[in-house]
Amino acid sequence: MLILASKSPRRKYLLEQAGLKFSVIPSSVDESAIPMSTPETYVMTLARAKADEVSKKYPKSWVIGADTVVLIGGAILGKPDSKKDARNMIKKLSGQVHQVFTGFSICCLEKNRAISENIKTDVLFKELSDDEIEWYIHTDEPFDKAGAYAIQGFGTFLVKCINGSYTNVVGLPVCEVIETLLKEKVIKIGGELNSNGG
Question: 152 pairs with which residues across the strands?
């Protein structure tokens, strides 16, 4: 049994698109209780905490936890908590290159295995007018998204180019997650990617 320890519809969609069969059991980890550190360490710590918490309830299952942050000019941007916050984030990103870090952790308590990794993608935003920013934040898309945008939604028009994993910016580096699952023999290549029942 494979479990995604996240309520993110984007992560669920990405894994479904990759042909995986899994259950969704979101963790209840208090993200505000995790101390801020470097973005690489922070996302991996949070991803591991989410995976560990769900794994304790389902020790025989393989559990995937993940977390994403945006870094611009040394400042970490999480999810905006208001339209004003979203506006400030988008203005900060306008015309600039920023980094998206996603950490993922895949663990199985019964097998005493845990693999954690973080992936970085560089993203360049176009120069945005005030009207464009106002229109975008009023779509309500920026909320519940690190950095206040969704590259796979209306926010696609904000992005001039990326260097690195596209799915990482959406919220989960699918290539690296699949590689880890294959290496750990959680899934196998067949007509589709099938759970190995391990």
Answer: none
* Residue entry with tokens 């979101």: 26
Average pLDDT of every residue of the chain? 92
Residue 130 has a CB neighbour count (10 Å cut-off) of: 10
Q: Where are the alpha helices (DSSP H) in 58-114?
A: 83-93
The amino acid sitting at 161 is: C
Q: Is 67 a catalytic residue?
A: yes
| d(C-alpha 156, C-alpha 27), whole Å | 29
Helix locations, the chain, DSSP H? 9-17, 39-57, 83-93, 130-137, 166-170, 174-183
Q: What is the pLDDT of residues 69-128, one digit of tens each?
A: 999 999 999 889 999 999 999 999 999 999 999 999 999 999 999 999 999 999 999 999
Q: Which of 30, 52, 67, 144 is catalytic?
A: 67
* DSSP letters spanning 125-142: EPP--HHHHHHHHTTTTT
- Which residue ranges form the domains of the chain, and what is each CATH number? 2-195 (3.90.950.10)
Alpha carbon 191 to its chain's center: 27
Retrieve residue 172's tokens: 């989960």
Cα(158)–Cα(148) distance, rounded to whole angstroms?
A: 11
